[in-house]
Amino acid sequence: MSDENDGQRFDRLPATDAERTVEGRATREAVVDYFDERFGIPPETFDDYTFWEKGAGKIWIYAGEAPTPLEIEAIGMTCLRTRQEHWKPTTDFAQRFGRHASDCVIELDREQARRFAAGEDQELDWWDGDWGYLIGAHEIGGELEPLGIGLYVHGELRSVVPKGRQREL
Asked: How confident is the model over 56-72, as a mean pLDDT?
């Protein structure tokens, strides 16, 4: 692994701080701990996955192994944005792994879920959990299904579902 970040190349995240060679790069341990501490997703959920960085803080998750570094356009799916004040999970990540979450999941009723999926912000002052990034979810067919990521601050849930993924339901 190179000692510098290259925006055109995927580098596997180092396992721990002790193995880091690129300043500011997240570690596998930190990413897995974040998903566990923030969302209650058990660390073993990621046993068969590798994590990669391309660019400054764009973290990808891949089901399998690959040599590092890789000069390709994509591997797996984006899962997290780091190198900013607050790490931000992606909608893809929430939809794929949100079923494993036990914390910071806000259950939305039908109308709230409709507005969330459409990208609308809404006042939800009844939430008594943590502020910050949450997984917005709605019950479908008796199961709580993750819709995407929202940002909850000051009694307001801001949908951060990307414009291209927003839907009128």
From this structure: 86
Interatomic CA distance for residues 56 and 1, integer angstroms: 15
DSSP state of 6: -
Contact 64, 75 (CB under 8 A): no
In the sheet with 11-12, reading across from the earlier edge strand, the strands are 11-12, 50-54, 58-62, 77-81, 88-89
Burial per residue of 133-151, b for 16 or more beta-carbon CB atoms within 10 angstroms, e otherwise: bbbbbbeeeeeeebbbbbb
Domain 104-161 sits in CATH at 2.30.130.60
Kindly report, residue by residue over 111-135, the tens digit of the pLDDT.
999 999 999 999 999 999 999 999 9
pTM: 0.89
Give the pairing of strands 50-54 and 58-62.
antiparallel
Residue 141 makes CB contacts below 8 A (sequence gap 6+) with none
CB atoms within 10 A of CB 28: 19
Ranges of each domain in the chain: 11-90, 104-161
